[in-house]
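ESCALATION

Customer reports they have been waiting on this structure for their group meeting. Please prioritize. Original submission:
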Amino acid sequence: MRRVHTVHYGLVGAVLLCMLAGCSFESEPKPTLTATVQPAPVGDGILRVGTVLPTTGPAAVTTAAQAAGVELAVREINEAGGVLGVHVEVLHRDSGEDGAAKVEAVVAEFAARGVDVVIGLSSSGLLQRMLPQVVAAGVAAITTPIEAVEPDEQFSARVRSMNPEVVDARFASEAYDATMVAALAAIIRDNDNGISVARALHDTSDGGVVCHSFGECLNVLTTEDDMNYNGVSGPFAIGEMDKAYFAAKT
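Update from on-call: job pushed to the front of the queue and completed.
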């Protein structure tokens, strides 16, 4: 059975890895690292990123910035040669509000179109509804809750070059970094498949030489085994309990 790996990408690196729908770290003891890791399926050679963000309702005010952040990251990745020599593709879809039925149709479309990584779904209600389908599809899911990250003027200008209507570029930071981390994870594992990407997310920041951009991180990987991506929204870190649970459940 393919498993979902859900990562909360935050300013201070607060991370939750959820391998199965409904799992909880609060009451579970740290598992023993004895599970056998099954090989990840080989991807089709194209890293596809899908965003699931609300374009209606109160949360829609943040959507334009997040989508622009993903687009900016994809543009910069592709300008640097893409992932595994192929340009990254991105699809944007409306998640609808918590009570809407759009998200199930969106995930089904993503699975049919070979999406490897889903970014977005700040709403816990929508995320829980999406999890069973994502589990079945073997897709990596990275949530991007809004954090008060104040980007510098240069980053804000880059975001608005993708969409001049973006009012507050803070909301683009985490989506931008989540896209970068997904791309770097695929490169580390030499595989664009969602399961492989999810397994390598912690490798993008688990010690090693600090790097701050896609190109800089690629340069590090040419000479070093480990890299540590510190992006616009801050470092990406995984706690020891998360690492243990990840290793046992993968």
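Sent to customer with the following note: The longest strand covers residues 48-53.
Escalation resolved.
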